[in-house]
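Late entry, zinc ion complex.
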Amino acid sequence: MPDYTEKELQTAFEYLKHEDILKYVPVDKLGNKKDALTALCTMLTLDIDELMKSAKELKEGIATIKNFKYYLNQGLGRYGSAKPFENMDAILVSKGIALMKESCSSLSYANPSKAIHTTENKSGTIKISCDIYRCGKFVTLFALCHEAGHAVDYPLRKAFLAMQTAIYPGFTGAGKEYEHFADLFATSFLMFIEKDKTAIQNAATKIFEDANNDGVHPSKSDRSLKVSTHISSY
Ligand SMILES: [Zn+2]
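Prediction complete; structure with ligand written out below:
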């Protein structure tokens, strides 16, 4: 077994805590993290390299949630010059962006300290499933931006429908279109800020696989098609 630093082991333990399996470690082994980790990996037949990779992604995912309020606020400050709005009146766009910033400023983010398995924006509190933030920065970012997309949906619909239809051409709000709007808001925002087509497409695919057939979201194929069409327009 390679010699891991104390910090790496700590990260791995954070991951294991989320699996809620520390209770299976003999108490006398907990005094020595490395022994305990080795014992755990043997017990669970985990590949230690895979475990370290997962721990790194988990850490990035959690950091992404913790920094998102700032990230979103900064990004929205520049989002007005993103591609969907290029042919729109600049004053209207800046008013729409101000409205988006206002709706997003009141959002709060549940602390990812417990292994919850739901992703939602409920009464302005965004929760991200641990199955998502374990996948690292981009998957977590896409999920967070999707939920922020729900937050800006209704205010835009009422006051700035033109901005809404710039993000999602043909948007009417009927059926499950609000889910596609949240996806396309996330896509256009991340394309503008991160500019990494492959990472964004992969993140979206991962999320759509997890949410497929949940009764709330449209089908995986329908969501993927809209996102890939949007990405290929860049
Ligand atoms: Zn949604």
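Residues 146, 150, 179, 182 surround zinc ion (CB under 6 Å). Will revisit in the morning.
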